[in-house]
Write a structure and sequence with these properties.
The protein has 287 residues and is of the alpha+beta class. It folds into 2 domains: 106 residues, Sandwich (Immunoglobulin-like), CATH 2.60.40; 160 residues, C8orf32 fold (Roll). 21% of the residues lie in helices and 40% in strands. The protein is built from 6 helices and 16 strands. The strands form 4 sheets. The chain has a 5-stranded antiparallel beta sheet, with no helix packed on it. A 5-stranded antiparallel beta sheet has the order 13-12-11-9-14, with helices on one face. A 4-stranded antiparallel beta sheet has the order 4-5-2-15, with no helix packed on it. Helix 3 crosses helix 6.
Length: 287
């Protein structure tokens, strides 16, 4: 990594509290960062309470999954993921008028290649109003990349970031109508609009250090975060919630069509209803 890279330590605690003893649960955690060109994972581990044997694999989208079963009776389930990651600044950005053209994105080979990332999903589907917004933005920009940046700007201006305004099941249409949401909703809106234009787009989950001027060694409350990537000859990443390219403050965990492909923790269990879920993310800049 270069001198301008950051070294981040991330700790993500999450889990469930049940209304009574649960006999068994079967779970998957997607909380481990990926090794890739803009980040290097120096160490990563996932710990489970009650203790359980875990095994890891990469899912269809390339996300690292830690799977585990708990067969002892339990009333709470706690998962703690810890990782140390080196990250790079954005760099190598595409100029607004560069990248693939609309005609190049419409070539059958390209459409076939990214078919799954051009289709709507339950959380990214658009209504008539949003479809018209997508058509208008496309018509105003001769290059798909410029249209994508304009889409990020529009959604950020129109949808206020309000924690608690939506839930994990909220779709793009609802967030747009109420003009409030969180990073998940803003990313779903951008992804849905880009796909409606014919631009392959995917949802990215990960972590964000909240401060551009982070003090070394100071542990701060971080965020499970979401942003987007679109393909215009190559993939490019952007954080529409903050209006910035993805850089040294971002840590990638997984990618998919929408949130449903990359939830941090999901599973099934035998027992009384889930009475609550807690989430705590701490991020420390080490260098």
């Amino acid at each position: 990594m270069s001198a301008s890279s950051w070294r981040l330590r991330v700790q993500h605690k999450t889990g469930f509290t049940y209304a009574g003893p649960v006999g068994a649960s079967y779970n998957e955690a997607r909380m481990s960062p990926r090794n890739e060109s803009h980040q290097a994972v120096l160490d990563a581990r996932v710990e489970v309470w009650p203790p359980a044997r875990t095994y890891r694999y990469e899912d269809y989208w390339g996300t690292v999954v830690t799977a585990f079963d708990v067969h002892a009776a339990h009333e709470t389930l706690q998962v703690t993921a810890s990782a140390t990651v080196e990250t790079l600044p954005a760099g190598d950005l595409i100029a607004g008028d560069a990248g693939a053209t609309w005609a190049e994105l419409a070539v059958p080979e390209t459409v076939d290649r990214w078919h799954e990332l051009l289709l709507p999903t339950p959380r990214t589907a658009l209504d008539e109003e949003l479809t018209e917004v997508a058509e208008r933005i496309r018509g105003e920009h001769p290059a798909p990349h410029a249209a994508a940046l304009a889409t990020c700007t529009l959604v950020r201006e129109e949808v206020e970031y309000v924690p608690g305004a939506t839930g994990v099941q909220t779709g793009a249409v609802q967030a747009w109508r109420q003009r409030k949401g969180v990073c998940q909703d803003i990313s779903h809106l951008v992804v849905g609009l880009l796909r409606a234009m014919g631009t392959p787009a995917r949802y990215v989950s990960g972590y964000l250090h909240p401060s551009p001027a982070a003090a070394i060694g100071e542990a701060v409350v971080g965020q499970s975060h979401a942003w987007v990537e679109w393909w215009v000859g190559r993939w490019t990443a952007f954080d529409p919630t903050n209006g910035i390219p993805v850089g040294e403050r971002h840590v990638v965990v997984g990618r998919g069509r929408e949130y449903g492909d990359v939830p941090p923790l999901k599973g099934v269990y035998s027992g009384p209803e889930n009475s609550g879920q807690g989430v705590e993310v701490t991020v420390t800049r080490l260098r």
